Amino acid sequence: MSSHHVVREKQEPALLLLGLDSFPDEMLGQLLEWSPTVIATRETAEKLNMRGIKIDWIIDNADPVLQSDVRQLDPGTDTAILAALKFLVDNGYPSVNIVADDLDLDEFKPFAGLINLVVFHDRKKIYPVNSGFSKWQPAGAMIEILSTPTGLRFTGLLRAGYQQYTAISDGFFTLSFNSDFIFIAEEL
């Protein structure tokens, strides 16, 4: 007997591809595994097209389109990130995986409470967390806090450097702080 799952639209995180220069093909394959909605910039779309990867949306307002059935998302005066995240929020997407060569967390902050977002950048997985966040990690795993929270308290971690921490042992670590959210990074 075999089993299979029906993947409904928007069930899996959308995939926003802003840059692929430092992202391994194997990890891209994992993110594409469940056929997410794929949104790309024109430059990234050209790289995906050369690899035979289907694109759903291109953030651009110029023709021609690289593939059939690709829709264009006109950014207007917005940046590509802003246009794509507005589109995803407005269309009810609950989550998005973002692959980026350049990182400016300020561009993601307005969306941290509106959509679950994970940013893959520089061999790191970056995402916002709320106070009281808890997660299991193996001993020695590195956690980096990319925001400057007030009143930071943590358990299960040992300070390893400026805003860097390591998991003391296999198990859960927790983070508490006085901000609405902070961005943290895990090494891939």
Structure summarized in a few sentences:
This protein has helices at residues 25-32, 42-50, 80-90; strands at residues 14-17, 38-41, 57-59, 71-73, 95-99, 116-121, 124-129, 133-137, 142-145, 153-155, 157-161, 164-167, 171-176, 182-187.
Number of domains: 2
Rg calculated over all Cα atoms: 18 Å
What is the CATH class designation of the largest domain? Answer: Alpha Beta
**Assembly state (oligomeric):** single chain
Uncertain ranges: 1-7
* Helicity range: 10-25%
| Annotated CATH topology of the largest domain | Rossmann fold
Spatial order of the strands forming the largest sheet = 4-3-2-1-5-6-7-14-9-12-11
Q: So what's the overall shape?
A: elongated
For the record, the CATH architecture of the largest domain stands as 3-Layer(aba) Sandwich
For the sheet with most strands, the description reads: 11 strands, mixed
Query: What share of residues are in beta strands?
Result: 25-35%
Helices and strands, in order, run as EHEHEEHEEEEEEEEEE
Number of helices: 3
Number of strands: 14
Structural class: alpha/beta
N- to C-terminal distance: 35 Å
Q: How much is the average pLDDT?
A: 91
Structure description:
The protein is of the alpha/beta class and 188 residues long. The chain folds into two domains: 14-122, Rossmann fold, CATH 3.40.50; 129-187, no CATH class. Helix content is 15%, strand content 34%. The strands form two sheets. The protein has an eleven-stranded mixed sheet with strand order 4-3-2-1-5-6-7-14-9-12-11. A three-stranded antiparallel sheet has the order 8-13-10, with no helix packed on it. A hairpin with a 2-residue loop joins β11 (157-161) and β12 (164-167). The radius of gyration is 18 Å and the shape is elongated. Residues 1-7 have low confidence and may be disordered.
